[in-house]
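Hey, I'm writing a tutorial for new members on how sequence and structure tokens pair up, and I'd like a real worked example in the thread rather than a made-up one. If someone can provide the structure for the chain below, I'll link this post from the tutorial.
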Amino acid sequence: MTLNTDPDKSRHQIKAANEKQLNINRTDHNRVLYIVSILSCISFLAFIVWIIFQANSGGNNIFFDLVRAIPYGDKLGHFCLFGSLTAISLLASKCAFFTLNYDPSNPINPRKPIRIYYAVGIISIFVLLEEISQGFIATRTFDISDLIADVLGISLFSYITIKLVSKYRHRYVC
């Protein structure tokens, strides 16, 4: 990137031209980050679906051996896998949300809006259905502690991701 230093232009014109060039580069950078986040989300989801398929079919792989070798590896796996999927999905969805319980027309009892993030909601439903389905599969067993680990992972990773995105949103336009 070369910045404009033309001696025939005023200092303000040069500054405006340079800022425009930086904004163009930032937009290109944001586009690349967005595409990478979408591809990462799809790839990680495919990996999790493959792991679930392996577990449902009674398969074995290196990841299952690793989980068995670590104390509480199953719970740690649930926490990290679904927490990471949530963080990546939040980034890929640009932290899109809708609000509940918001009534700006009531000045006497204004309620604080509750943000429901699409990525968190979709992943929570996916996790709940996947955990419940384990009760109907012969090679799996339903375990409430797995569901708790999933919820804790989703909650913590969501909180951290949303805080970081809100802190650095001014640098990168979503």
